[in-house]
Structures are given as structure tokens and as C-alpha cells.
């Protein structure tokens, strides 16, 4: 019995050692993201980093959201429309908004804040590889408004990429990967690109806080307001660094969500507040009220093959009609 105990302890020690080696390798890979060197990243490392962003958004929303449903219920119609329009592109309607507020009461501001931050952070960084670019003469504020925060140059680059994909998908991904790797190489251009990415993170954070989100954030003093902005900007900065590294790979990324909930979906899970246990089918086939977090799905390999196969890097989190 003693020998068996010793063998089990040895196996545990070896398992813990391997787990620690994996953790160190993952952290090392992401510490080297800012270099221009292109190297494939393991799916497990990518998923771990994206889960950290998910947790960061959840913590930020929980820290600064109103905990009073009446704040949202008593908004005038034009303010409600402002919130709904911010989330309409991921499926939120006026009826869905009312169902969330009436059904989730004091959790409604928290859920809506999570949805707004996640949508903006994930779509900008993991759906549009050139969103941070600006022309040489642009200061970063000339093109910023309440609707669009990308420069005309960034939009043109994205449109070119989309057009190339229609002609030759594989070569389009090679072009995108090569272009972003060159921009990430050392030298004056790389310094400008770093500044552009910093500017994009700060700009997006300001736009969100000044947008519909402001209707659901609790009042804070000047110092805490600064910390609130800086912590949100930090989340965007982390996301843009991760996405910068991922877009230099030949793997293609798409962001999206499903319109109806399926218990056995490979890309969608119900929000934790709905307490859906494994095997629980009570919400299967129900309408999705809100996409709290879009999914990030990868296609293809680091060598530019198998674009028809997908891997889920981050699952979509949804609020399901009950």
C-alpha cells in the first residue's frame, strides 16, 4: 500500500511539473508578442489569453455597473434607443431589451454593459485586422465620431482585404499576414504602428464610456473616473496586442454568434446567471435575447491550409429567453 501511495504521489508530481511547463511556455509566447518575429501559437495558449479578457470585462462591468434596475427602466425612449442601436448589429431588439430589463431586474445594467464592451472589443480586434491604422497626416481624432472610430485608411485596407478574399481566399490571408508582419518589424514603421495601436485602444475606450454605456455606469468621483477609464483602456490594449500577434498568422479569424440557442452548440454557452447545468435541455431551441460576448472562431492552419476547418478560440456567451 505504501508503494502504491508513493507511485501515485510521483505521478501527481510529474503531472504538476508538466502543467507548470505548459503554463510557462504559454506566458513566454505572449510576452514575445511585441517582437516582429512570426511564430505559430498553440490553441490552448490563445484560449487561455482570451478567457482572461473575458474575465477582465466581467470584472470591469461588475465594478462599475448600477445595481438598480430602475435606472434603466426609467430612461426616456431616445436613451433606450441609443442602447439598443449600440447592440442591434448583434441581434438586440427593443423587445429583447424590455425582456432583459423586466426579467433580470438589477442585473440588467451589468449584462448590457458586458455586451457593449465585449462587442466593441472583440469585433474591432478579432474581426477587423486593420482597424488601428491611420494615414500619415491623421492625428487620431479627425475621423472619430459617435458611429465610427476607424480611419478612412483602415476602412480602405479592410475593404481591399475583403475583395482579395473573394478572388483567392488563401492568398488574401497570406497578404494580410505578410503585411502585418512587416508592420510589426523593428524600425520607425514599427514604432508608428505601436503608437497607432495605443491610440486605437484609448480612442475605443473613450468612445464606449462616452456612449450608451454612460447611462448604466454608477456615478464616481474624478479619481475613480480616471481609474475606470484606464482599466477599460488596459483591457483594449491587452486585446489589441493579442490580436496583433494572431493576425500575423495565416490563420483566419471570424467573430459571430448564433440566433437560436442549442444546448449542444460548439460555439455558444448560456450566461452563468441562467445556471444551466450539463445535460439541462430546458432552454434548447429558445430565442437568444442578447449576445453578451461574441464568439472568436479560427479557420486554417499556420501554414495556410485547411481553411474549411474551424477551431473555437472563444465561445459566445448568450442570454436565452426563459
TrEMBL record:
It comes from the Eukaryota. This is Uncharacterized protein. It comes from Uncinocarpus reesii (strain UAMH 1704).
